[in-house]
């Protein structure tokens, strides 16, 4: 197991479980805000020291929880894009986006169309390296925070050595998170496929 010597920051509206923050507190700063994510870009531009070089985004919700497709788009697309811009302005070199299998801006399915539009908007920003994950159904616990917390847990534990997800259609949030952290670090170090290309798309079990 390799060790990640990076300092990470977890942006959230609710504090993560103590099990995460106790894993390796020296590597994590927790920014908790009750304000909507649309207000977080300013924090990324001014409040992150040292600036993060890898930015992971698992920002997502459901149409039902958001209160409609327009509200879902405002969070998933608009807030995601502004956070990405802020991260790039602050010095991030690598952007890792967790998207969805079937994402396509031309899709007639609203969810897949939205995911595709998010991908296109992020890619247009021109990070030095962009890694896009398109996992299938995320298995296990269904709380919205599960995947975001799993990414942070993987960073804190220095978990960067698992190359494959176990199944194309259904992946556990912990597996996706570990693969995302591994790919992000490889892109940052210039290693493997992730480090050799400007844009890497990873699908299902190849994440």
TrEMBL record:
<dbReference type="InterPro" id="IPR036291">
    <property type="entry name" value="NAD(P)-bd_dom_sf"/>
</dbReference>
<dbReference type="GO" id="GO:0051170">
    <property type="term" value="P:import into nucleus"/>
</dbReference>
<keyword id="KW-0496">Mitochondrion</keyword>
<comment type="similarity">
    <text>Belongs to the FMP52 family.</text>
</comment>
<protein>
    <recommendedName>
        <fullName>NAD(P)-binding domain-containing protein</fullName>
    </recommendedName>
</protein>
<keyword id="KW-1000">Mitochondrion outer membrane</keyword>
<dbReference type="GO" id="GO:0005741">
    <property type="term" value="C:mitochondrial outer membrane"/>
</dbReference>
<keyword id="KW-0472">Membrane</keyword>
């Amino acid at each position: 197991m390799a060790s990640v010597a990076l300092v990470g920051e977890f942006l959230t509206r609710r504090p993560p479980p103590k099990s995460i923050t106790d894993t390796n507190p020296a590597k994590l700063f927790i920014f908790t805000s009750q304000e909507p994510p649309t207000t977080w870009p300013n924090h990324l531009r001014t409040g992150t020291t040292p600036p993060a070089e890898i930015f992971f985004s698992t920002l997502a919700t459901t149409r039902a929880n958001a209160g409609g497709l327009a509200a879902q788009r405002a969070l998933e697309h608009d807030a995601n894009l502004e956070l990405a811009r802020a991260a790039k302005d602050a010095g991030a070199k690598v952007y890792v986006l967790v998207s969805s299998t079937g994402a396509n801006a031309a899709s007639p399915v609203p969810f897949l169309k939205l995911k595709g539009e998010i991908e296109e908007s992020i890619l247009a920003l021109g990070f030095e390296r962009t890694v896009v994950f398109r996992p299938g159904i995320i298995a296990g616990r269904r709380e919205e925070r599960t995947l975001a917390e799993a990414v942070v847990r993987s960073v804190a534990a220095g978990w960067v050595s698992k190359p494959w997800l176990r199944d194309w259609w259904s992946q556990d949030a912990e597996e996706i998170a570990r693969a995302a952290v591994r790919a992000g670090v490889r892109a940052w170090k210039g290693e493997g496929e992730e480090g050799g290309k400007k844009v890497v798309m990873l699908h299902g079990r190849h994440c």
